[in-house]
Amino acid sequence: MYINVKEQTIIKTHLKVAKVVDGDGIIVSNLFNKQEEEIRLLGIDAPELRMCNKLKQDERETHIAGQLLMELGRKAQKFMISVIPPETNITLVQEEQSQIDAYGRTLAYVYLPDGSCLNEIMIAEGFAKPYNRFFCSELPKYQELSNTAKIKQKGLFSIVQNW
User: Fold this and answer.
1) Which helix (H) or strand (E) segment is 139 a member of?
2) Where in the sequence is the domain holding 27, given as residue range(s)?
3) pTM for this entry
4) Which in 55, 90, 106, 108 has the greatest CB count within 10 A?
5) What is the pLDDT of residues 82-111, one digit of tens each?
């Protein structure tokens, strides 16, 4: 696990995946008190699973039909489940500057037991794209990984070029 020590970070351990919500969100459970918390993966965005304002916005920006975007969202969710099925132990790393989103979800980098970062995997494999709505010190790296995935037509980029 690599954590940029120049940035102010908060580390949360002793968590396991309770549910994969979509391609950029999970629910985790604390191993000690069983309390659940919704996590939004920091610095990434995956297509939506259902009709909502964000899906309508994505339709306008990408010129891709909502039904296709939702199908891409299901593919992103399925991929994430293959990487972190429920009961997977994880560690969260948060940046001081971006801890909570507008919906009260915790913004974080999710690290797997082998030390790899789920946020990076989702981008590198083409199932999410960089998202700059919240401060994310890894954004330049994510943009590079996304460009490589797009060039290699990985993940969702094998179906559409821009989403």
Assistant:
1) helix 139-151
2) 9-157
3) 0.92
4) 108
5) 999 999 999 999 999 899 999 999 999 999
